């Protein structure tokens, strides 16, 4: 792995009877977790009071490990930490923290996101038959297949309003989760702990916030463990590439585990989709069987900033649709912008099919600054950002009305100093001549039409030389 180790190892308990027994239980109950953990370095250190992960390494306090009363709870601990790695919770939390907010109407609360992650992970592990750690976070309300981002949004909306306006921004309400957080028996609601009101999301002021980290400077724990962020050295471009390579290695470990289970006769379709979806080959929930999606994926692949390509991150959509392995850029995409036509004449079905494909593309190219959606009619009505495919798919579409002037989106990007690697314009094509000319003059721009263009629109696009494809309903 390429991430910097936040703490140095002081012990090695990997050869002890307790560790071997826990790994056997892990392999029996969670083969994918076991396989992923085999490729993950466990760092035994007293620098963390219990256990932690930064999404790349697992850190375990030897005394905490020994204090767990059963091998089953030790297996639960290993499965819990590696689940954060499988679901990339630290990386996603880091992206939200750097952005400064969760969505256009929700602030970012790092601790609350960690709580949401623990709810989903622990529900998954309990369903798999692991013995829970009493100090963990459990909720009857949230299940193993819930999306962590959706759970976060739900918890955020349920937080009571502060009694005064003097509370620092970014700090969650100390009692905001008391109805859902459960320690011990998963069916018995109890408060989470004394540190519930700290905010790990604001604990990192910059990319090197965990430098010289000590126990006293750790973010507040969520449940039994601490949630950290991965750190990388070098230029921003080198850091982005290294992080993309680490994520790729994790995806490969998941794929290998699923392959092995298939070879042993297991039903791959029975593996929960929330886990299968974190690999690159064994998920199809965002794939449609139409030709234009291949063209769309290839277009995105070739337009990546610079000319660097690597087979370490294949073109996922091309592989899933055609079975053809082709290279894609790694760590090259920063931001993808979508100017989405919300005039009243736009067809809904092609748009939903397009957004479905765009979500899968986001999974494949993993733009470090996310996907920006500019909902536009005759002017830009609203701007949203999505740092995950689930967040993109859940963006609410504004009410369709008004005229059509897609160049307003380009003007907004320029006026706000937003740099993008690729701009997509989804529209019905009913644009004025000056609008087509403005789009054609932009670099790295692709027009996606919701219908086959009429003769006049075809003539205009040919005249100005704009690149386009036609989306079809799934």
Can you summarize the main beta sheet?
6 strands, mixed
Q: What's the mean pLDDT score?
A: 78
Total beta strands: 14
Number of helices: 16
Taken together, the total number of domains comes to 2
Order of helices and strands: HHEEEHHHEEHHEHHHEHEEHEEHHEHEHE
| Outline type | elongated
Largest sheet, order of strands side by side?
11-10-9-12-13-14
Q: Indicate the proportion of strand residues.
A: 5-15%
Low-confidence stretches: 165-212, 283-290, 305-331
Report helical residue fraction. 25-40%
Structural class, by secondary structure, is alpha/beta
Radius of gyration: 23 Å
N-to-C CA distance: 39 Å
What do you see in this structure?
The chain has 474 residues and is of the alpha/beta class. The protein has two domains: 17-236, no CATH class; 336-470, von Willebrand factor, type A domain (Rossmann fold, 3-Layer(aba) Sandwich). The chain is 39% helix and 12% strand. It has helices at 17-29, 31-38, 62-67, 71-86, 89-99, 110-127, 148-158, 236-263, 273-276, 292-302, 316-322, 348-365, 389-393, 407-415, 433-440, 455-464; strands spanning 42-44, 51-53, 58-60, 101-103, 106-107, 226-227, 310-314, 327-328, 336-341, 371-376, 380-386, 422-427, 445-449, 468-470. The strands form four sheets. Strands 11-10-9-12-13-14 form a six-stranded mixed beta sheet, with helices on both faces. The chain starts with 16 loop residues before the first helix and ends with a strand.
């Amino acid at each position: 792995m390429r991430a910097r180790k936040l703490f140095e190892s002081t012990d090695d308990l990997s050869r002890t009877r307790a560790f071997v027994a826990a790994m056997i239980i892990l392999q029996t109950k969670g083969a994918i977790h076991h396989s992923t953990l085999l490729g993950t370095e466990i760092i035994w250190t007293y620098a963390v009071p219990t256990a932690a992960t930064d999404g790349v390494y697992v850190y375990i306090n030897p005394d905490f490990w020994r204090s767990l009363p059963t091998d089953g709870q030790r297996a639960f601990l290993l499965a819990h930490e590696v689940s954060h790695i499988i679901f990339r919770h630290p990386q996603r939390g880091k992206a939200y923290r750097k952005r400064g907010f969760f969505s256009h109407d929700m602030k970012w609360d790092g601790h609350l996101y960690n709580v949401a992650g623990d709810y989903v992970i622990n529900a998954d592990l309990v369903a798999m038959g692991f013995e829970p750690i009493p100090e963990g976070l459990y909720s009857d309300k949230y299940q193993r297949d819930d999306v962590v981002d959706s759970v976060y949004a739900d918890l955020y909306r349920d937080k009571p309003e502060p009694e005064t306006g003097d509370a620092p921004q970014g700090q969650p309400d100390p009692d905001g989760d008391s109805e859902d957080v459960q320690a011990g028996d998963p069916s018995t609601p109890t408060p989470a702990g004394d540190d519930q009101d700290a905010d790990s999301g604001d604990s990192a002021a910059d990319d090197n916030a965990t430098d010289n980290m000590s126990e006293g400077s750790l973010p507040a724990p969520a449940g039994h463990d601490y949630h950290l962020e991965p750190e990388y050295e070098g230029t921003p471009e080198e850091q982005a590439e290294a992080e993309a390579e680490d994520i790729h290695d994790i995806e490969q470990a998941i794929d290998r585990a699923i392959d092995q289970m298939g070879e042993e006769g297991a039903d791959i379709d029975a593996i929960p989709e929330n886990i299968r979806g974190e690999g690159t080959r064994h998920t199809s929930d965002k794939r449609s069987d139409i030709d234009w999606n291949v063209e769309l994926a290839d277009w995105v692949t070739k337009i990546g900033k610079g000319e660097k390509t690597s087979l370490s991150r294949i073109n996922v959509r091309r592989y899933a649709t055609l079975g053809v392995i082709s290279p894609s850029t790694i760590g090259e995409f920063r931001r993808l912008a979508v100017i989405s036509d919300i005039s009243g004449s736009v067809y809904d079905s092609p748009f939903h099919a397009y957004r479905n494909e765009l979500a899968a593309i986001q999974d494949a190219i993993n733009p470090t600054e996310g996907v920006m959606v500019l909902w536009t009619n005759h002017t830009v009505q609203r701007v949203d950002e999505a740092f995950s495919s689930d967040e993109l798919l859940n963006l609410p579409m504004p009410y369709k009305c008004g005229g059509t002037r897609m160049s307003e989106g380009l003007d907004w990007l320029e006026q706000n100093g937003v740099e993008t690697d690729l701009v997509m314009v989804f529209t019905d094509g009913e644009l004025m001549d000056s609008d087509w000319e403005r789009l054609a003059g932009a670099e790295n721009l692709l027009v996606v039409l919701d219908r086959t263009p009429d003769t006049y629109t075809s003539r205009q696009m040919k005249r100005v030389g704009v690149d386009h494809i036609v989306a079809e309903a799934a």
